[in-house]
Design brief:
Blueprint: H1 4-11, H2 21-24, H3 27-30, E1 40-41, H4 46-56, E2 60-65, E3 77-81, E4 88-97, H5 98-105, H6 116-123, E5 142-143, H7 149-156, E6 162-167, E7 177-178, E8 180-183, E9 185-190, H8 191-199, H9 205-208, E10 225-228, H10 233-243, E11 247-251, E12 265-266, E13 272-277, H11 278-282, H12 289-292, H13 297-306, E14 318-319, H14 325-335, E15 340-343, E16 349-353
Parallel strand pairs: 1-2, 3-8, 10-11, 14-15
Antiparallel strand pairs: 2-4, 3-4, 5-7, 6-9, 10-12, 11-13, 15-16
Length: 356
C-alpha cells in the first residue's frame, strides 16, 4: 500500500524519536529466520517449476545456471560463490513468477478440449525460456542486508516485490538494491515479510489507525477490473496475461445478453463473489490441468477448495473505506493475500488496497 511516504515521515528523527527504530532496524534483522533460498535450475521444465512452487508454497523462484553462459535479467550479474575459495558456482539469470507461468499457458493454442498434447508440450519447455514473459521478471535485484527498514520500504513501494539478500556478500557496505553481487548464499525478502514486520510494531499504531480512504495515504486504487462468474479459467488467465494482473475479482454476471465473459469487465459497483489469483493455478495438479482450464472460474475454485488445495472459495478478504490501515495490513498478513478488495455497505466493489 502506498503509505510508505507517511511512515517514512513519521520515521524521521525530526518528527518523532520513537520511530527511530525504523532507521535502526536493518534488512538483516528480517531474514534471521528465513530458510535457504528456493530455486530451480535453468534446465527445469515448467511442470517441475510449478511442482517446486507448490511444494514450497512460494509464488516466485530464481533460476540458476552455470556461470559464464548467460546474461542475467535486466543486465544483472548475481552470483553464488564458494565461501572459502571464491570460485563461482552459480549465476542467477532471472526470477520466474506465477504470472510468467500464466502468460505462457495462456499463449496461442491452449484451452481447447482436444488440446491436451499442446498443453503437455508447453509444460515441458525449459523454465529459462519463459523468463521475462511479464514485466516483473525482466529484472533481478539483490538488497544489501545493511539497508534500513525505511529505505527497504521506499524500494518496495516502487514496484519491486521481492529481492535476494546476500549472506556473506561482497558488497557488505553497500546500502540499497544492486544488480551485481557475489555471495556464498542468499535469502529471499518479500513485500509480505516487510508487512509482517510492520504489523508487529507498536510504534506505528498512530499511522496504522488512519482510514484507508485518507487521501494522504493513497491506499485505495479506484479502478478495478474483474471477470464474471461465467468466465472460463482459460479466458481469465488470458485476461490476466494481457493486463499483467496477479489477481482479479470475480463479480456476478449481469443480465445483459451482450456481456462478454471472455474479457475483463469494470468491477466498480458490482457484487464480488470470489477472487482468482495466479497462485490458484499453483494448487492445480499439472496432470489434471487441461480439462480444468475449461471450467467456469467459480467451479474451478470450488474444486480446489473441496480437494484441500484452497482454504475457501466463499470467503472474500474485503474492507470498507472507513477501515483502518492497520486492519487492512492485518488481513493481508493473516490471510496471506496480496490485495484486499474495498467494498461498500452493500458489498459492491469500490476498489482495492494492494501492497506496492
Amino acid at each position: 500500500m502506498q503509505a510508505t511516504a507517511e511512515i517514512q515521515a513519521a520515521g524521521s528523527p525530526r518528527r518523532s524519536q520513537k520511530h527511530q527504530m525504523l532507521k535502526d532496524k536493518q534488512v538483516k534483522d528480517l531474514i534471521v529466520d528465513k530458510r535457504r533460498l528456493v530455486e530451480v535450475p535453468y534446465t527445469a521444465t515448467l511442470a517441475d517449476t510449478i511442482n517446486t512452487l507448490m511444494a514450497n508454497k512460494v509464488v516466485a523462484v530464481p533460476v540458476a545456471a552455470p556461470p559464464g553462459h548467460w546474461i542475467g535479467a535486466g543486465g544483472s550479474m548475481i552470483l553464488e560463490a564458494d565461501k572459502q575459495t571464491g570460485a563461482v558456482r552459480k549465476h542467477y539469470i532471472g526470477m520466474v513468477t506465477m504470472l510468467d507461468i500464466l502468460a505462457h499457458i495462456a499463449g496461442n493454442g491452449c484451452g481447447d478440449d482436444d488440446d491436451d498434447a499442446h498443453l503437455t508440450k508447453k509444460m515441458m519447455v525449459p523454465i529459462s525460456s519463459i523468463i521475462g514473459h511479464c514485466l516483473e521478471s525482466l529484472s533481478l535485484w539483490t538488497l544489501s542486508p545493511n539497508t534500513s527498514i525505511v529505505d527497504c520500504m521506499e524500494i518496495f513501494s516502487k514496484g519491486i516485490h521481492r529481492a535476494m539478500v546476500p549472506v556473506n556478500g561482497r558488497s557488505e557496505n553497500v546500502v540499497g538494491v544492486e544488480l551485481t553481487e557475489s555471495a556464498s548464499c542468499y535469502r529471499m525478502l518479500t513485500q509480505m515479510d516487510l508487512l509482517r514486520f510492520l504489523n508487529d510494531q507498536q510504534e506505528l499504531k498512530a499511522i496504522m489507525s488512519h482510514k484507508v480512504s485518507d487521501k494522504q495515504l493513497q491506499a485505495i486504487t479506484d479502478t478495478v477490473f474483474g471477470v464474471t462468474n461465467k468466465a472460463k479459467v482459460i479466458d481469465v488467465i488470458k485476461c490476466m496475461r494481457t493486463a499483467s494482473l496477479n489477481a482479479v475479482p470475480i463479480v456476478e454476471s449481469s443480465n445483459e445478453i451482450t456481456e462478454d465473459h471472455t474479457q475483463l469487465v469494470n468491477g466498480k459497483k458490482r457484487k464480488i463473489v470470489g477472487t482468482f489469483s495466479a497462485t490458484d493455478l499453483r494448487g492445480c495438479p499439472v496432470s489434471k490441468m487441461q480439462p480444468l482450464l475449461n471450467l467456469e472460474v467459480l467451479d474451478f475454485l470450488k474444486m480446489l477448495s473441496n480437494t484441500g488445495m484452497r482454504s475457501s472459495w466463499r470467503e472474500q478478504v474485503t474492507c470498507h473505506p472507513e477501515s483502518s490501515l492497520g486492519e487492512v495490513v492485518e488481513k493481508v498478513v493473516s490471510d496471506n493475500v496480496h490485495r484486499v478488495w474495498v467494498v461498500d455497505e452493500q458489498g459492491l466493489l469500490e476498489g482495492s488496497c494492494i501492497p506496492k
